[in-house]
């Protein structure tokens, strides 16, 4: 049986179990159709070449909690009561495609943050750029959630968070998480499904990341904010918490941030090559999958948070059917569920016939 079909069956089973109710035939059929969209987008895997750890990365902190595999192609990051751990790319890159297969810690993970991101904060302390995947742990029995974020030119006061659920259990098997960064756009991927795109505009100015960045992966104690705003802390009775990374991919233009030739000139040819890659194009099938994801799994978006941003930031594309589902705070209405009928109380979203279809 094809691995993607197996994956679809597992995801359907996962949500039928976590939904807390028996699915009706209609809702099950619609759910399967929705998952099929993900599976089609996921069926043609990117043609990626992994890089051994020691060829492109080095430990960042917590050396004793960073464990390489014997073949050098994978690494485990541990968090215990003494330290977390992390690694960093050996070079900075002016644009690139940064990707890894990741499996998250299981059981009780409240307060734990696993991050996969690009940044140049160690070089440009006050004007740094950053692109984040941050996975936010949870109490046992509750699913992991995650957020993506973007900072440009030190714009930390203008966070661009979007928070979402996953359509699978990220602790059971590896899934690929990727960040594409080009001169014109940024795309966050899970497996081969694009979940978020930021298109550069003149109005963004320096808020669009433009300086060379390193790739980071870390696991650390984020008890002060990661789970329910800090309500639930890391419980070291469950330590060590282990995040596994393998099939590391780094496609980009390595640069010296203080080199005489500007990076955008030195990397022009590589940038053109990067933008011709399969993962640089959101095909109609992938765009449909992205809409499905955002309709059914995203539960917070800064673009709809009118309390923080009465005027949405210039890169925001306001989709009416999305906007109707969010409060002024950018969070979902009806107790955090994507379903429109408040009597449905299951934790995980299931596509229902009452969902708005106007922008599909």
From TrEMBL:
UniProt entry keywords in alphabetical sequence: Apoplast, Cell wall, Cell wall biogenesis/degradation, Disulfide bond, Glycosidase, Hydrolase, Membrane, Secreted, Transferase, Transmembrane, Transmembrane helix
Keyword Kinase attributed: no
Biased composition (Basic residues): 336-347
GO terms for MF: hydrolase activity, hydrolyzing O-glycosyl compounds; xyloglucan:xyloglucosyl transferase activity
GO CC field: apoplast
Domain spans labelled GH16: 44-245
PROSITE patterns given in the database record: GH16_2
CDD domains membership: GH16_XET
Transmembrane segments: 23-46
PANTHER family hit by this protein: XYLOGLUCAN ENDOTRANSGLUCOSYLASE/HYDROLASE PROTEIN 8-RELATED (PTHR31062)
Entry protein name: Xyloglucan endotransglucosylase/hydrolase
Provenance organism: Morus notabilis
């Amino acid at each position: 049986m094809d691995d993607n079909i197996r994956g679809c069956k597992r995801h359907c089973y996962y949500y039928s179990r976590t939904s807390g109710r028996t699915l009706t035939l209609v809702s099950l059929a619609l759910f399967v159709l929705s998952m099929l969209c993900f599976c089609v987008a996921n069926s043609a895997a990117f043609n990626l070449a992994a890089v051994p750890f020691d060829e492109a990365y080095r430990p960042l902190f917590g050396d004793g909690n960073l464990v390489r595999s014997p073949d050098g192609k994978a690494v485990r990051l541990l968090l215990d009561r003494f330290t977390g751990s992390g690694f960093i790319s050996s070079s900075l890159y002016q644009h690139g495609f940064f990707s890894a297969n990741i499996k998250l810690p299981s059981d009780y993970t409240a307060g734990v943050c696993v991050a996969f991101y690009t940044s140049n904060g160690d070089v440009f302390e006050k004007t740094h750029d950053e692109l984040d995947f941050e996975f936010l742990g949870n109490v046992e029995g509750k699913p992991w959630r995650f957020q993506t974020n973007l900072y440009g030119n030190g714009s930390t006061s203008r966070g661009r968070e979007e928070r979402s659920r996953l359509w699978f259990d990220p602790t059971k098997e590896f899934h690929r998480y990727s960040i594409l960064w080009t001169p014109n756009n940024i795309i966050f991927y899970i497996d081969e499904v694009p979940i978020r795109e930021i298109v550069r505009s003149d109005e963004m100015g320096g808020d669009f990341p433009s300086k060379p960045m390193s790739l980071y992966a870390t696991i650390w104690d984020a008890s002060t904010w990661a789970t329910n705003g800090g309500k639930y802390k890391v419980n070291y009775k469950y330590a060590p918490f282990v995040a596994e990374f393998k099939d590391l991919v780094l496609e980009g233009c390595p640069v010296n941030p203080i080199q005489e030739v500007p990076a955008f000139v030195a990397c022009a040819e590589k940038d053109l090559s990067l933008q011709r890659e399969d993962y640089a194009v959101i095909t109609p099938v992938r765009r449909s999958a992205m809409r499905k994801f955002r309709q059914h799994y995203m539960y917070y978006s800064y673009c709809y948070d009118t309390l923080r941003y009465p005027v949405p930031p210039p890169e925001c594309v306001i989709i009416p059917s999305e906007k109707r589902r969010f409060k002024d705070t950018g969070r979902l209405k009806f107790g955090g569920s994507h379903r429109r009928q408040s009597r449905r109380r299951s934790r995980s979203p299931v596509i229902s016939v009452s969902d708005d279809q106007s922008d599909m």
